[in-house]
Amino acid sequence: MTSTPFPIPHFPPPWTNKCTAYVLPFYNSASSGLPLHTAYAPLEARTPAFSAQKEAGTYKGGLGLVQIIRYSETPVGAYDELVILPGAFGDAKGKGKDLRITGIWVNLEASLWNGRWNWNIPKHLARFVFSPVPTKPSSSPTPVKVEVFPHSDPPSTMPFFTATIYPMAYTPSFPFSSKWLDYLGYSTNILQPPLPRGEPAELEVGTKDWKRSSPLLKSRRARAVWVDMRQHDTDGKNGAGEGEGEGDKFLVKPEPNWWPGMGRWRIGVACEDAVLELGEPTLLID
Question: Are 257 and 229 contacting, i.e. CB atoms less than 8 angstroms apart?
């Protein structure tokens, strides 16, 4: 830990984090483009240097990932996280083909500040609700409904992301490593443009350099899961809808299954007793 001019201590990399992680793969072609209000938080969506292809690198599409992570041990404490990696991008000159985190939300200020400063990860605050789903006692992992709400005052009544995760019956556990994607021809490097400064500026810090990092997620006990991507509505039913609370005024009505064209039911991976390693990033200098 090092001191900073801000009220939040700096915990430089490397980080070794213990967690439970849910990984949902999906495919999005480059020709389909990116839905800005789904892939990005508002700050980055309206910042061309982060989200415009001419300035932030060409979107090349391909394998995308959604990650829901519950950290039990990290240098800054326990917290929850939603991560959107919609596919591969080139650098500012259109070269290369690396993954990029376009949107990421956490419920801990220390994680937000350190993630932005250390790796150019565009973290924002959100409220997470994990609700158990009634099922057979023997189900493992336990079925859970995940809802992520905007950080607002008064609190939002409509989540901007919902997923309900069910274990896949009669499937054994297996070891998992995100490094396997490299062997399949997919880069697991994360290339991040400089971040814009948000509000409050001492928390949502901006950065100046491009950074590339190589996170590694591994688990000895992973399982296949079904993921219901049907989004929430205000009647308590499944399906997209608009919130009615004061904290919902800025929200855009979501797609029925979150991402444009995505089917309701998806296959994912639940990684129990997992470790996520975040090393020192590489600065990209022209």
Answer: yes
C-alpha to C-alpha distances, 234 to 163, 221, 241, 242, nearest whole angstrom: 16, 36, 6, 7
> Strand (E) positions, 37-160?
59-73, 79-85, 88-89, 98-99, 103-106, 123-132, 144-150
Residue (of 57, 39, 62) closest to 284 by Cα position: 57
- Taking a C-beta distance cutoff of 8 angstroms, is the pair 270, 165 a contact? yes
Q: How many other CB atoms are found less than 10 A from the CB of residue 60?
A: 17
Name which of 221, 236, 229 is nearest 269 in CA terms.
221
Which residue type, as a one-letter code, is found at position 220?
Answer: R
Q: Which two tokens stand for residue 214?
A: 């190589």
d(CA 221, CA 135): 21
List the beta bridge partners of residue 28. 62
Structural contact between residues 158 and 148, judged by C-beta atoms closer than 8 angstroms: no
CB atoms within 10 A of CB 230: 17
Burial of 69 (0-12, 13-18, 19+ CB in 10 A): buried
Rounded distance between C-alpha atoms, residue 88 and residue 235, angstroms:
37
| 217 Cβ contact partners less than 8 Å away, ≥ 6 residues apart | 21, 23, 176, 177, 178, 271, 274, 275, 276, 277
Low-confidence stretches of the chain (pLDDT beneath 70): 1-6, 137-140, 233-253, 286
- Alpha-carbon dihedral of residues 19, 64, 49, 200, nearest 10 degrees? -30
